[in-house]
Amino acid sequence: MAGARNGPLAGVRVVELAGIGPGPFAAMLLADLGADVVRVDRPGGPGLAVDPAHDVTNRNKRSVVLDLKSAEGPARVLDLVERADVLIEGFRPGVAERLGVGPAECRARNPRLVYGRMTGWGQEGPLAHTAGHDIAYIAVTGALGMIGAPDAPPAVPANLVGDYAGGSLYLVVGVLAALHHARATGTGQVVDAAIVDGTAHLTAMIHGMVAAGGWQDRRGSNLLDGGCPFYGCYETADGGYMAVGALEQQFYDTFVELLGIADRAPARKDLARWGELREAVAARFRTRTRAEWTAVFEGTDACVAPVLSLREAPGHPHLSARGTFTEAGGITQPAPAPRFSVTPTTVDGGPALPGAHTAEVARDWDLPALDPKDA
After folding, report:
1. Residue 213: exposed, middle, or buried by beta-carbon count in 10 A (0-12, 13-18, 19+)?
2. How far is residue 92's CA from residue 169's CA, in Å, rounded to a whole number?
3. Given a cut of 80, is residue 46 above it in pLDDT?
4. Sheet-wide strand order for 13-17
5. Collapsed DSSP state (helix, strand, coil) of residue 153
6. What's the CA gap between 31 and 9, in Å, rounded?
């Protein structure tokens, strides 16, 4: 994969200091959008037990290997920084500074640089230097406590809510905003993207509903958290599940009609009878298989869909028609998103293997010292 790429960020150069989780995902998103992302891998790998050949978060990137603890490592990173628009790192606070590649050193070489920092707790605060993972970050923001049945522990939403939604996506938004500012003024800045901040921000609407008295601060008791019988998941005869989101009256009317309970469904606005309505819906869904119910609701405005597994999702007719998933490097994976009418994005190949592009990057970024063969 050459340095020239398509997409709205074509021409933007990004240095990614290798890490795990939200930092690599954010860099992947920038790469998907067309940026030339050079991942600086460390000798021995990042420490995550994922075969680099299958790590989709490293697609559309190029990789060099540098030892930041060696005498020459930090200098080579600063050489890259001098030619870059953005740097992304996900170390604990203070680690990049100790390695000699902190914001001060980097922006001394390149005042226009946008320095993106990805952490769980943020760069400051009582827990800033404490270890943590997605589940702890979303726990303290109130987001985890919202998810799941009221009579069971909170349901863990993989690491989608914290690492990727509250972390990666907010880092990318911050980087793009700072890049816009840097190009307008010539001055870069540091972007402090903390998963706790982003995840808390995601709950903005819910906080408004709590203040207005429209949301009970407990799990499984509200319109959008599984408490509502016409917004949730129901088991089918074959052990599958159907997802129901028939919130508006016209969609609800279609739902109960197609489900076959329109003549005996309790009034949906009578919260005292929600339990009765839930039982009626659940009993009806258990009479047919997931495939049979999918056929019943297909193409209607009942707002009902089958709950698919990760392996099943690419075969869904709508997703297949849109090309929501693609195959690259022998791996079925989500295609880049969102889509652009003038600057379309693509997956150019499989994940970047550590150090595979050293000679390419040395040539394209005019850094002969980066390639040991030329040093």
Report:
1. exposed
2. 19
3. no
4. 61-65, 36-41, 13-17, 86-89, 114-119, 189-194
5. coil
6. 8
Q: Pick the closest to residue 41 from 369, 357, 368 (CA basis).
A: 357
E runs forming strands in the chain: 13-17, 36-41, 61-65, 86-89, 114-119, 189-194, 231-235, 241-245, 304-306, 325-328, 331-334
Query: What are residue 214's phi and psi, to 5 degrees?
Result: -100, 10
170 within 8 A of 198, measured Cβ to Cβ: yes
Are the C-beta atoms of residues 360 and 353 closer than 8 Å to each other?
A: no
Contacts of 49 (CB under 8 A, 6+ apart): none
Highest mean pLDDT among 4-8, 48-52, 224-228: 224-228
Taken in order 49, 53, 54, 60, is the CA torsion positive or negative? positive
Give the CA angle between residues 13, 16, 20 to the nearest 5°: 150
| Cα dihedral across residues 252, 254, 260, 262: positive or negative | positive
**CA-based nearest residue to 117, from 87, 154, 137:** 87
Q: Identify the CA nearest to 205 among candidates 278, 275, 143.
A: 143
Quote the CA–CA distance of 222 and 213 in Å, as a whole number: 11
Q: What three-state secondary structure class fits 300? A: coil
- Answering whether pTM is above 0.90, one says yes
Phi-psi category of 304—alpha, beta or left, where left has phi over 0 and alpha has psi -120 to 50? beta
The SS3 assignment for 255 reads: helix
Across the beta sheet with 231-235, the strand order is 231-235, 241-245, 304-306
Candidate from 48-52, 60-64, 97-101 with smallest mean pLDDT: 48-52
Alpha-carbon distance 229 to 206, whole Å?
Answer: 19
Place of tokens 């849109």: 322
Q: What is the 3-state secondary structure (H, E, C) of 304-354?
A: EEECCCCCCHHHCHHHHHHCCEEEECCEEEECCCCCCCCCCCCCCCCCCCC
Question: What residues are annotated to the active site?
Answer: 133, 163
| Contacts of 217 by beta carbon, 8 Å cutoff, 6+ apart | 210
What is the band of 31 on the pLDDT scale with cuts at 50, 70, 90? very high
